[in-house]
Amino acid sequence: MKYKLFKKKKPKSNFFSFKKIINTRNYNVSYYKGWHELLVLRINLLNSTITENFFHLFEAKKNEKLEKFIIISKGTLSIGKKNLFKKLRKFDCIHTKTSLKDLIIKNHGKTELFIVFGTKNIRMNNKLNFFNFEKNLKKTDLWGGKCISRVFNGKGMTLVLFRLKRGFKFHDNGHRNEQLTWLVDGKMKFYVKNKSKLLRSNGASVDIGPHDYHGGMSLGAIGFDAFSPKRSEKRYS
């Protein structure tokens, strides 16, 4: 693509909205590049279609060997090669390092998915590793009581699916890891240092800088945290 998706940024906190870079009748693609190594694509598939070269749109040489997650957040999608396909549903995920270029997608109506790219300096197999956040990962109480989290540690990054009950509050004194937080449902009041904003699906998200304190209050929210490098604390293991 002609877009400089991997352009380096200063390591600081900011609120953001995914920037749309492709908009067609059948799909649209938007992205956000963080300050460390994280790049997130949000893809909305709008019609039932079969596409053989879809991932060629944005997987250039620089990112085809990166560690990556493909996450289905809404709808259903079949993905595979020739006659070997796997149907993915809500919160199904693929974790891989291999290139996506040869994969064919069969979309079954309106579907939303995210692709999270991380580092290339890792050792892992080139298989497509499938799991479901809610079916295959145990519940973790990271913040106490009103927060249900499910943590997956990759080789170079950590991905967390969270469900926050209405009224849940938290404060974090900060960490060295970059943290991208985006919602797929609901709303959340969020602050980083002296700035605050309402996070929402298809609205504002947040990129947290090194050692910046942050927190907020949930109005009922489901979303993801992506960390780079991966979290090393015991509660994330």
Overall description:
- The protein has 237 residues and is mainly β.
- The protein is 2% helix and 50% strand.
- The protein contains one helix and 19 strands.
- Strands 1, 13, 14, 15, 16, 17, 18 and 19 form an eight-stranded antiparallel sheet that branches. A seven-stranded antiparallel sheet has the order 2-3-4-11-6-9-12. The chain has a four-stranded antiparallel sheet with strand order 5-10-7-8, with no helix packed on it.
- A hairpin with a 4-residue loop joins strand 13 and strand 14.
- The chain is globular.
- The N and C termini lie far apart (36 Å).
- 37% of the residues are buried.
- The model has no long low-confidence stretch (mean pLDDT 91).
Present the secondary structure layout.
Elements: E1 14-16, E2 19-23, E3 27-33, E4 39-45, E5 50-51, E6 68-74, E7 77-81, E8 84-88, E9 92-96, E10 104-107, E11 111-117, E12 129-132, H1 133-136, E13 147-153, E14 158-164, E15 169-172, E16 178-192, E17 195-200, E18 205-208, E19 214-228
Summarize the structure in short.
Helix content is 2%, strand content 50%. It contains 1 helix and 19 strands.
Supply the key terms.
237 residues; mainly beta; seven-stranded antiparallel beta sheet; 19 strands
Order of secondary-structure elements: EEEEEEEEEEEEHEEEEEEE
Q: Which of globular, elongated, flat, extended, rod-shaped describes the shape?
A: globular
Mean pLDDT: 91
Low-confidence stretches are none
Which value, in Å, is the CA radius of gyration?
A: 17 Å
Instruction: Tell how many strands the DSSP assignment holds.
Output: 19
Ends apart, CA distance between termini: 36 Å
**Number of helix segments?**
1
Structural class: mainly beta
